[in-house]
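Researcher: Can you fold this with thymidine-5'-diphosphate in place?
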Amino acid sequence: MSINKGRFITFEGIDGAGKTTHMDALEQAWKQAGHEVVRTREPGGTPLAEKLRALFLHDAMDPLTEALLVFGARRDHIKAVIEPALARGAWVLCDRFTDATFAYQGGGRGFDLQVLGTLEGWVQQGLQPDLTLLFDLDPAVAAERLSAARQPDRFEAMDRAFFERVRGAYLDRQRAQPGRFAVIKADQAPALVAEQIQAELRSKGLL
Ligand code: TYD
């Protein structure tokens, strides 16, 4: 059970799933409802964690280094931003969190899930999102959305098989903790994706 007064909501999915538009809409809706909204992202969200993000996205490293770096950034983010925000009653919207580590480092890279679980316990000390919106879609569709976009980072440059594993690992996390997740069918038109999100949030009393 969380003693936090606020709400911690995370947004997950493979690259090209289309999270950003819907995060923008929810940020506006919750602000209009009178909540303090803290919009943030991982890796990142603090000056230190943003520096680590630049290394993480662009420098070659082995999977353990990758995992340690992202959990290091996460620790700083939790202590400096997420916990204080939740304690004062804010609604924290975070673009990716630990499910991404299980999906990308665990599923994508094949790194040891038990080690990730240990790091999760040390770094989060029980902190978990109240709700995770998982934008699920076929990596082939996601890749088409990304193709016109900017210079790919180390992850966006990975092949289809990598993203199939990432997708599978996200769904494994969802099956292990079904109550925390809402799976959104993200291959539909933006208006239909928005409808699914609204229905999920209403059913949980969050909208
Ligand atoms: P992303 O959130 O997609 O931001 P942008 O839209 O600006 O590219 O980029 C973050 C990348 O980092 C994404 O490819 C997933 C990856 N990532 C991990 O591999 N592990 C993690 O724990 C997190 C949080 C992200």
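Model: Folded with thymidine-5'-diphosphate in place. Helices lie at 19-32, 47-58, 63-87, 98-108, 113-124, 139-147, 160-176, 190-203.
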